[in-house]
Design brief:
The complex is a heterotrimer of chains A (about 270), B (about 280) and C (about 180).
Chain A: E1 2-10, E2 19-26, E3 31-35, H1 42-49, H2 52-55, E4 60-67, E5 70-71, H3 77-81, E6 84-87, H4 91-94, H5 102-112, H6 117-130, H7 146-158, E7 164-168, H8 176-191, E8 195-199, H9 203-209, E9 212-217, E10 220-226, H10 227-231, H11 245-255, H12 261-270
Helix pairs in contact in A: 5-6, 5-7, 6-7
Chain B: E1 14-22, E2 28-37, E3 42-47, H1 53-60, E4 68-73, E5 76-77, H2 83-86, E6 90-93, H3 106-116, H4 121-135, H5 150-162, E7 168-172, H6 180-195, E8 199-203, H7 207-213, E9 216-221, E10 224-229, H8 231-234, H9 240-245, H10 252-259, H11 268-280
Parallel strand pairs in B: 3-8, 3-9, 6-7, 7-8
Antiparallel strand pairs in B: 1-2, 1-4, 4-5, 9-10
Helix pairs in contact in B: 3-4, 3-5, 4-5, 10-11
Chain C: H1 2-8, E1 14-18, E2 21-24, H2 25-51, H3 54-63, H4 68-96, H5 106-111, H6 113-137, H7 156-178
Antiparallel strand pairs in C: 1-2
Helix pairs in contact in C: 1-2, 3-4, 4-6
The chains are: A alpha/beta (about 270), B alpha/beta (about 280), C mainly alpha (about 180).
Chain lengths: ~270, ~280, ~180
C-alpha cells in the first residue's frame, strides 16, 4: 500500500505551493487513474507520490508518504527505487543513454539492483513479453520511434518488479493498439498485487482499467471515487477533463430520454 | 488568422503519384501511395505507428525525396525544389516541440518561420499575433518557451507553423499531451484554417478528433493507403474489417449507431441526430 | 622531424653535407630512435582502437573494479555522439520545414546556426533533470557492485598471449634498468 497524507509541496526556489493537502491511497493490486487539466499538478503529484520529490528533486514537502507502512522520508533514491517506480511522459528522457540494445536498456534497472545475472535476464524477458517487444530487443534504443521508445520505457520500469508503479501519461505517443497493449500489461501487473497510479488524458483507457479515479485541479484533489461515479460526475467537463465516450454518450442519451443499453452492448462487442 | 496570399491555381494543391520510399537501411516505408488533396480540404491520416504516415508527410515539403513516384505541390514537381522554398506552400509542424524551439522568447520563436518566408514589419507582426491568439498564447508572448509546460510548448510549435500562413498546414499528432480544452482549441484552429481556404492535414491516433475535425480520413497500413474517404465511410461497418486489420477501432458513436441499425454515425452529433430522426420518422 | 634531426643535431661525425647543413651520425641515430618510438606508440594506439570495442573495454574495466558511476559516465559519453547526431537530424528537418535555408548561400547557412544548435543544447539541458530522475528510478547510484550481463569472451590463447606480452614488458623494463640496452642520447 502506498499512502500520501496531507501532502503540500513547493518546488525549490518557488514561492507558491503546487500541491495542497493531497491525500492519496493506492491499495495493493489497485489501479487508480489521475486526471485533470494541463498544469493542474498531475506530474508533480507523480513525483511526490514516488518520493522523488523531495528526495531527489528537492523542494519542501509537508505531509507524509508511506510505502507498505514504512515512512519514505528516510529512504535514499535507490531504496525508493526498490519500492516504487515512476515513468515520465517524455520517452526521450526515459532512455538511459548507456545501452546499445533495447534488451540491455530494459535490463539496466534489475542489473543496478545488484541481482544475479540469471534473475536480471529473467525479469528482462518477462517485461519484454508483457509489452510484446520481442522484435525490438536487438535494436538501438536511440533509434526508436516515439511509440516504441515509450513501450521500452514502461518495460524498463516493469523489469524492476516494483510494488508500486506511477506512470505519467504512459500512452501519449502510442497508437490505439499500443495503448490497448499497455492497458492489458498494466492490468496483468495489478493482478500480481502491484498498485498503480496512472496520469492520463485518455479517459477511455482509464474507464476500462481503473477501479478509482482521482481528479486534480489547481494542486488540490477535487474528486476521488469509483471510476463510474467520477466519470459520470457532471462537474468533470467544467474541470477541463474529457469524460470517456461511454459516460459522454450515456449522459447525452439520458438527456434525450433514450435507452442507453445500446452503449454497453456496443462497448462489450468490441473490447 | 490571416492567410498570406497563396497559390490559387486550379487542380489539387497536392498530388502524390505512385510514391514509394525506401530508407537507407532497406525499410520500405511507403509502397505505392496515390493521393490528391483538394484546396481547402481537411484530411486526417491514421494508421499504426510505423505505417508510413510521417514518412508520407515529409515528402510534401521535400524533407524526404521519393525513391519511386513523384509529389506535385501546387501542380509543380517537388523534386527540383528546395525545402526552404516548398516551406512557403507546405507548413509542417513536427510532433516534438523540443526538437525545434530555440528562441529565448515565445514571440521570437513564432517569428522565425514567417521571417524566413520574407515577411517583415506589420505583416510579420500580424502573422505572429494571429498565430498567438489562435493558440491562446497571447499572454505568454514574452515568456521563455522553456518556462512553459509541455502542452503549451506543443501549442507554441503549432503557432510557429500557423504564423507562416502557408496554403497547406500539416500537423503531426497535434493533440498529444493536450487536455480537453487543448483538443477543443486545436479543433477550432483546424476549422478556422479551412474557413480561410487553407488545406489542413493531420496525423492522429485520436479517432474522436479525427471524426469530429476532418472531412476526409486516409487510413494507412504497411506503407499503403487501405481506406480513403469521409469519416462516415471510413468508420462505416463495412470498413471495420479493414480498420481491424491495422488495429484501429471506430469511435464509440459509430459502433453504437451500427448496433442500433442507424447507419454510419462516427460522431456524437451524428449519432444523436440519427436517433432523433429515427424517433420522429 | 626526422630530416630536421638528421641535419640539425650537433655531432662530431659528419656523414655528408647538403648546402649549409651537415648530416651527422648522431643526428641519424636520434632520428632513427624517434622514428621507432613514434611507430611503436602509434601502432599500439592503432591496434588498441582496431581490436577493442570501446563498450567492451568499459564493461571489462567495471568488471575489474571500476566504479559503476565512472563506467556510466564513460558509456554515456560513448553513446552521446550518435544520440546528438540523431537529435540534430530531427531538428534540422523541423527547422527546414519552417523555411530555414540550409542549402543556400554561406550567409543563409550562418543565420541558421542558432536554430540548429539551440534546440540541441536547450533540449539537452531541460532533459538533464528528468533523465537523472529516470536513472534514479532505475536504482542507479545504488552502492555496491552490479552483476554485469556481459561476459567478454577471453580464450585461452588470448590469455596466453597476454601473459607472454606481460612477461616481455617486465623483461624489457628489467633489461633497461640493468643497462642491457645502450643508453639513449
Amino acid at each position: 500500500m502506498l499512502e500520501l497524507r496531507g501532502a503540500t509541496y513547493r518546488y525549490a526556489g518557488y514561492a507558491t505551493e503546487v500541491l495542497h493537502e493531497v491525500d492519496l491511497r493506492l491499495d495493493d493490486g489497485e489501479i487508480v487513474g489521475l486526471v485533470g487539466p494541463n498544469e493542474a499538478g498531475k506530474s508533480t503529484l507523480c513525483l511526490v507520490a514516488s518520493g522523488l520529490a523531495p528526495a531527489s528533486v528537492g523542494g519542501s514537502l509537508k505531509g507524509t508518504l508511506t510505502l507498505d507502512g514504512e515512512p519514505a522520508a528516510g529512504l535514499s533514491t535507490h531504496q525508493l527505487a526498490e519500492r516504487v517506480v515512476v515513468g515520465f511522459q517524455n520517452p526521450n528522457t526515459q532512455r538511459s543513454g548507456v545501452a546499445a540494445t533495447v534488451f540491455e536498456e530494459i535490463a539496466l534497472g534489475p542489473m543496478n539492483l545488484g541481482l544475479p545475472v540469471a534473475e536480471t535476464v529473467e525479469r528482462t524477458r518477462e517485461a519484454i513479453a508483457r509489452l510484446r517487444l520481442e522484435h525490438l530487443v536487438l535494436r538501438d534504443p536511440q533509434r526508436l520511434s516515439g511509440g516504441q521508445a515509450q513501450l521500452v520505457g514502461i518495460a524498463s520500469l516493469l523489469a524492476m518488479r516494483p510494488r508500486h508503479v506511477i506512470l505519467d501519461e504512459p500512452t501519449a505517443q502510442l497508437d490505439p493498439a499500443g495503448t490497448r497493449l499497455v492497458g492489458a500489461a498494466l492490468r496483468e501487473l495489478a493482478g500480481t498485487g502491484t498498485s498503480l497510479l496512472i496520469a492520463e488524458h485518455k479517459t477511455d483507457l482509464l474507464d476500462g482499467l481503473c477501479s478509482r479515479i482521482v481528479v486534480i485541479d489547481g494542486g488540490r484533489i477535487v474528486l476521488d471515487g469509483p471510476t463510474a461515479e467520477v466519470f459520470d460526475d457532471p462537474r468533470l467537463a467544467s474541470l477541463g477533463v474529457e469524460p470517456p465516450a461511454r459516460a459522454r454518450l450515456t449522459r447525452a442519451f439520458a438527456e434525450r430520454g433514450l435507452d442507453p443499453s445500446a452503449i454497453a452492448v456496443a462497448l462489450a462487442g468490441t473490447s | 488568422m490571416t492567410a498570406v496570399t497563396g497559390p490559387t491555381g486550379a487542380g489539387p494543391i497536392i498530388r502524390v503519384e505512385g510514391l514509394a520510399h525506401v530508407y537507407p537501411g532497406g525499410t520500405r516505408a511507403l509502397d505505392g501511395v496515390d493521393l490528391a488533396i483538394r484546396r481547402g480540404e481537411r484530411v486526417a491520416i491514421v494508421g499504426q505507428n510505423g505505417s508510413g504516415k510521417s514518412t508520407l508527410v515529409r515528402h510534401l515539403n521535400g524533407l524526404l525525396r521519393p525513391t519511386e513516384g513523384r509529389v506535385l505541390v501546387d501542380g509543380k514537381d517537388a523534386a527540383g525544389q528546395r525545402v526552404a522554398y516548398l516551406a512557403a506552400t507546405v507548413g509542417l509542424a513536427f510532433q516534438d516541440p523540443d526538437r525545434q524551439i530555440f528562441a529565448g522568447k515565445v514571440r521570437a520563436e513564432v517569428a522565425f518561420g514567417p521571417r524566413n518566408l520574407g515577411l517583415t514589419g506589420a505583416a510579420l507582426d500580424a502573422a505572429i499575433d494571429g498565430a498567438l491568439a489562435a493558440t491562446g498564447l497571447d499572454d505568454d508572448a514574452d515568456a521563455n518557451p522553456y518556462d512553459l509546460g509541455y502542452s503549451r510548448r506543443k501549442l507554441l510549435a503549432l503557432a510557429s507553423i500557423l504564423a507562416m500562413g502557408t496554403p497547406v498546414v500539416v500537423l503531426d499528432e497535434p493533440t498529444t499531451g493536450q487536455d480537453a480544452r487543448g483538443v477543443e482549441r486545436i479543433h477550432r484552429i483546424v476549422e478556422e484554417l479551412a474557413g480561410d481556404g487553407r488545406t489542413v492535414m493531420a496525423i492522429s491516433h485520436d479517432m474522436r478528433f479525427v471524426a469530429e475535425s476532418f472531412e476526409r480520413v486516409v487510413v494507412m497500413r504497411d506503407g499503403r493507403v487501405i481506406l480513403d474517404g469521409p469519416p462516415p465511410d471510413v468508420f462505416a461497418e463495412a470498413s471495420w474489417p479493414a480498420l481491424e486489420s491495422t488495429f484501429l477501432e471506430p469511435p464509440l458513436p459509430a459502433r453504437i449507431g451500427a448496433r442500433l441499425g442507424l447507419g454510419s454515425t462516427p460522431t456524437d452529433g451524428a449519432l444523436l441526430d440519427a436517433l432523433a430522426a429515427a424517433a420522429t420518422g | 622531424m626526422v630530416l630536421v634531426s638528421v641535419f640539425t643535431r650537433a655531432g662530431t661525425t659528419v656523414l655528408f653535407t647538403v648546402g649549409p647543413f651537415d648530416a651527422t651520425l648522431e643526428g641519424v641515430d636520434f632520428a632513427g630512435q624517434t622514428l621507432v618510438r613514434l611507430f611503436a606508440i602509434s601502432t599500439a594506439i592503432g591496434l588498441f582502437g582496431l581490436t577493442t570495442e570501446p563498450r567492451s573495454f568499459v564493461l571489462d574495466l567495471e568488471r575489474r573494479g571500476l566504479s559503476p558511476r565512472f563506467a556510466f559516465v564513460a558509456m554515456a559519453t560513448l553513446e552521446a555522439v550518435p544520440a546528438m547526431v540523431e537529435r540534430a537530424s530531427v531538428i534540422g528537418s523541423a527547422q527546414r520545414a519552417r523555411g530555414l535555408d540550409t542549402e543556400g548561400s554561406v550567409r543563409a547557412r550562418l543565420r541558421g546556426v542558432l536554430p540548429l544548435v539551440g534546440p540541441v543544447i536547450f533540449s539537452s539541458l531541460t532533459e538533464v533533470e528528468e533523465r537523472s530522475l529516470a536513472l534514479e528510478v532505475r536504482a542507479f547510484g545504488r552502492p555496491g557492485r552490479r552483476e554485469l550481463l556481459w561476459r567478454i569472451p577471453d580464450s585461452g590463447l588470448q590469455q596466453a598471449v597476454r601473459a607472454v606480452l606481460m612477461l616481455a614488458l617486465l623483461g624489457a623494463i628489467v633489461a633497461r634498468i640493468a643497462g642491457v640496452f645502450p643508453a639513449l642520447p
